[in-house]
Each structure stands twice: as C-alpha cells, then as structure tokens.
UniProtKB/TrEMBL annotation:
<dbReference type="InterPro" id="IPR000608">
    <property type="entry name" value="UBC"/>
</dbReference>
<dbReference type="InterPro" id="IPR050113">
    <property type="entry name" value="Ub_conjugating_enzyme"/>
</dbReference>
<protein>
    <recommendedName>
        <fullName>Ubiquitin-conjugating enzyme E2 G1</fullName>
        <ecNumber>2.3.2.23</ecNumber>
    </recommendedName>
</protein>
<dbReference type="GO" id="GO:0061631">
    <property type="term" value="F:ubiquitin conjugating enzyme activity"/>
</dbReference>
<dbReference type="InterPro" id="IPR016135">
    <property type="entry name" value="UBQ-conjugating_enzyme/RWD"/>
</dbReference>
<dbReference type="GO" id="GO:0032446">
    <property type="term" value="P:protein modification by small protein conjugation"/>
</dbReference>
<keyword id="KW-0808">Transferase</keyword>
<comment type="function">
    <text>Accepts ubiquitin from the E1 complex and catalyzes its covalent attachment to other proteins. In vitro catalyzes 'Lys-48'-, as well as 'Lys-63'-linked polyubiquitination. May be involved in degradation of muscle-specific proteins. Mediates polyubiquitination of CYP3A4.</text>
</comment>
<feature type="domain" description="UBC core">
    <location>
        <begin position="10"/>
        <end position="170"/>
    </location>
</feature>
<keyword id="KW-0833">Ubl conjugation pathway</keyword>
<feature type="signal peptide">
    <location>
        <begin position="1"/>
        <end position="24"/>
    </location>
</feature>
<dbReference type="Pfam" id="PF00179">
    <property type="entry name" value="UQ_con"/>
</dbReference>
<keyword id="KW-0067">ATP-binding</keyword>
<keyword id="KW-0547">Nucleotide-binding</keyword>
<dbReference type="GO" id="GO:0005524">
    <property type="term" value="F:ATP binding"/>
</dbReference>
<feature type="active site" description="Glycyl thioester intermediate">
    <location>
        <position position="95"/>
    </location>
</feature>
<comment type="similarity">
    <text>Belongs to the ubiquitin-conjugating enzyme family.</text>
</comment>
Length: 174
C-alpha cells in the first residue's frame, strides 16, 4: 500500500500528539514513551499490575508498534516481560479484540464494534489491556495452556501467576 508524504506527516503528527498528551497528563496504571526518539512508530509501555489481581505489584514492559496507516489499522502489542496469561501468546503477543483488524470477524466470535476502530487511542488500548489482566478471556486464549489453567482455577494456576508477577516482573523473589 502506498502512502503520500502528507498522509505520513499526519500520522506522525497524531502519534506525536498522543505521546505529548500522555507525558503532560499521565494516566494511572501505565507509562509510555518512545523506544527510540527517532522512531515515532515504536513505543515502550510499562503497565503496573492492577490492584486486587494476581499481577498486583508487578511491572510489565511491552512494545506498541504502530502501522504506517494508523489510525486506520491497530498497533501491535507485545509484552517483553514474560507473562503467563490466557490472552498473551507465549511469545508475548497480546490478543484482545481492540487490537484486532477492523471489520467483521471471519470466525464470528467478535462484533465489529469490539474490534479496532480509528477512535481508539493508546489510553483506550492500555485500559483494555489492564482490564484484560484483571479479567482474562479464557474462552478464546492466545496461550491455550494458560487458558486451560485459568478455566480450572486450580492452585497451580495461582502459583504460576504469582511466580510471573512477582519473580519475573520486577517484584520480590520468594
């Protein structure tokens, strides 16, 4: 797909505005910044584990990579901090509706309004991800093993979450 210089300038302006707004008015629960000051399309975010969840107290680093046709298409999100969660693939890719391509779901699982819409911002994405950490969707897991354990709600599931949230994600070791 070809994009004119004017279109790319608008995307850079949109992303620059979003990062400036987040720096000026931080949102509780996460921080965001550029990985490299020379690349507006690649961001680093750090999510603070939500209270009253197994992730509470953890710090979870992820990358957001914006496409050149943003906001028509969603960014990709990948956790860099190891995370055991039904909606996070073993390689760190985040799988939630808000980050799925816009339009009809060929499998009929998601409604179009649950998928990416150009009105979404980094803030709405991060709020959705924080919500996902607190309330996983085990019916459609990206990590099947984590999904099965989440559905079983057994002790090993809880121990695995604590080990990841506290041990790997910067919290105290046991």
């Amino acid at each position: 797909m070809y994009f004119s210089g004017g279109w790319l300038c608008r995307i850079v302006a949109i992303l620059s505005s979003l990062i400036a707004e987040l720096n000026k008015n931080p949102v509780e629960g996460f921080s965001a910044g550029l990985i490299d000051d020379n690349d507006i399309y690649k961001w680093e975010v750090v999510i603070i584990g939500p209270q009253d969840t197994l992730f509470e107290g953890g710090f979870f680093k992820a990358y957001l990579t914006f496409p050149y046709d943003y906001p028509l298409r969603p960014p990709k999100m990948k956790f860099i901090t190891e995370l055991w969660h039904p909606n996070v693939a073993k390689n760190g890719d985040v799988c939630i509706s808000i980050l799925h391509e816009p339009g009809e779901d060929k499998f009929g699982y998601e409604k179009p309004e649950e998928r990416w819409l150009p009105i979404h911002t980094v803030e709405t994405i991060m709020i959705s991800v924080i919500s996902m950490l607190a309330d996983p969707n085990s019916d459609s897991p990206a990590n099947v093993d984590a999904g099965v354990l989440s559905l079983q709600r057994d002790a090993s599931h809880i121990e695995i979450h604590f080990a990841i949230a506290e041990g790997v994600a910067g919290g105290p070791e046991w």
